[in-house]
Amino acid sequence: MSVxxxxxxxxxxxxxxxxxxxxxxxxxxxxxxxxxxxxxxSIDDDAAKVSEGSWSRQLLRAGECTPIVTAIVEGxxxxxxxxxxxxxxxxxxxLTPAYLDAVTPLVDEIRLLVGDGLPYLGFxxxxxxAAEAAIIGGWKIDDIPVCAEDAxxxxxxxTIAEGLGLVELAIDVxxxxxxxxxxxxxxxxxxxxxxxVAIDEFxxxxxxxxxxxxxxxxxxxxxxxxxxxxxxxTILP
Length: 237
Hints:
This protein has 7 helices and 15 strands. The protein has helices at about 15-25, 45-60, 95-105, 105-115, 125-130, 175-180, 180-190; strands at about 5, 35-40, 65-75, 90, 120-125, 135, 140, 145, 160, 170-175, 195-200, 205, 210-215, 220-225, 230-235.
């Protein structure tokens, strides 16, 4: 089973290419329509209700499944019951620090489930927090801008936090669309992280035990430390 990390993008009307491999893996776990837990953190109750419907529709466009969407409001925490009797786990997008806070009570259980073969898909914020050292936001390093302020996730300084630990690489998202590749490059150059991958929207980095590959419309940019600074390359599909 794999960890699927999606760089974000509007899901309304999207055909769901980046979700299909995840659903195939979830389906392989049993002889039923796969039960997919979808965890969403929204800004308010109205947004939470909208998210419940839009995520169900998106997954059903991608393949046969039974979406089980739990949408909470920023500041609330998920309960462990959301992980019961599921065939796949999808953590959605929104304010990244709020997502990390919301899943804090579940971190150990998520690690155990994914380690035991449960497919995981992180979408935008859900991708960022999947890392061991998670880039959760910020747009400045040493008071120097490294990306647009709008990409800062309500944080000023680039902030690294302990994530879910599902992948060793740091992950940034909306790379081409928000210019966050520059943030990952700067964070690597500054030694805040050892390197990572910046993923475009509508693009998934799929990490399994023996391979890494890219699915979707855009690029996944590998950033690593180098003797002469930082090396940036694309990961081929």
